[in-house]
Design goal:
about 150 residues, alpha/beta, Rossmann fold, 6 helices, about 20% strand
């Protein structure tokens, strides 16, 4: 039996995230692994780190609207998965800092492998402060697979 039985796949609507979800589904098909697909609504009003807004400072209706967008993105990705993989996939929507939430959820879900795309929808942030994928490679307690 494969050691990787729980995959965490962050998605954000980008093509790279879609490719990561497809790769995770491919591996799950070979190993029988369970997939947690997660969308994290970033709470920010600009690309710089100082533009991040604390969850408690964001109006609840705005957070819910952002999470609704995430639900739509998750559903689109989920529908592309083979039905046998859909049966082993759970969808999660959160709001906050993607780096921190992915790390937290990986621990909560007892994730064996994080599978994610090389670059999401915020290339400005990747240039200025480092990408989410780079942060996770350095900080995650489980392996991280980056899909091009």
């Amino acid at each position: 039996m494969c050691a990787f039985q729980k995959f965490l796949v962050p998605v954000d609507g980008s093509a790279a995230a879609d490719r990561a979800a497809a790769k995770a589904a491919e591996f799950a098909g070979m190993t029988g692994a369970h997939i947690d697909l997660i969308y994290i609504a970033e709470l920010r009003n600009g690309p710089m780190p100082q533009h991040i807004i604390r969850r408690e400072d964001m109006p609840a209706d705005v957070i819910e609207a952002l999470k609704k967008t995430g639900d739509d993105i998750l559903e689109r990705v989920y529908q592309k998965l083979p039905s046998e993989i859909q049966n082993r996939t759970v969808l999660h929507t959160e709001a906050g800092d993607p780096k921190e939430i992915i790390l937290e959820m990986a621990q909560i879900f007892k994730t064996d492998l994080i599978v994610m795309g090389t670059r999401g929808l915020n290339p400005e942030q990747a240039i200025m402060i480092g990408s989410v994928s780079r942060y996770l490679i350095e900080c995650a307690v489980c392996p991280v697979m980056i899909v091009h």
